[in-house]
Amino acid sequence: MKYVAAYALLVLGGNNQPTEAQLTQLLKEAGVEPVAADVNLVVNALKGKSLAEVIKEGSKQLTSLSVGGGASQSSAPVAQATPAAQTTQAPKAEAPKKVEEPEEDVDMGGLFD
């Protein structure tokens, strides 16, 4: 992903057809040790193509994926409070206790260094 992002940065910077050397240089300046085979793969895959068209085609493919995040319909109906129900004294349900989990130290790959 970092190779594609670096390629996109070069295109957005005005270079419509970045070379392997330019992509490698940008990655090194960003503190990434690039793999030549991966750089070659990205440059050759995008050679002669408009980045905007590649993104447009990729967006079409994303619409067919189910990535979650949508609200699902529950089979249980939502309880509505009515004025009559509010006046009766119902026993209060005890709130579930929150279980605290220990924090994990996650390696972000130098993202915030």
Automatic annotation (TrEMBL):
Similarity remark: Belongs to the eukaryotic ribosomal protein P1/P2 family.
Keywords, alphabetical: Ribonucleoprotein, Ribosomal protein
Keyword Ribosomal protein belongs to the record: yes
Domain of life: Eukaryota
InterPro entries: Ribosomal_P1/P2 (IPR027534), Ribosomal_P2 (IPR044076)
Name of the protein described by the UniProt record: 60S acidic ribosomal protein P2
Keyword Ribonucleoprotein: yes
GO CC terms, sorted: cytosolic large ribosomal subunit
GO biological process: cytoplasmic translational elongation
One GO molecular-function entry: structural constituent of ribosome
Organism of derivation: Paramecium octaurelia
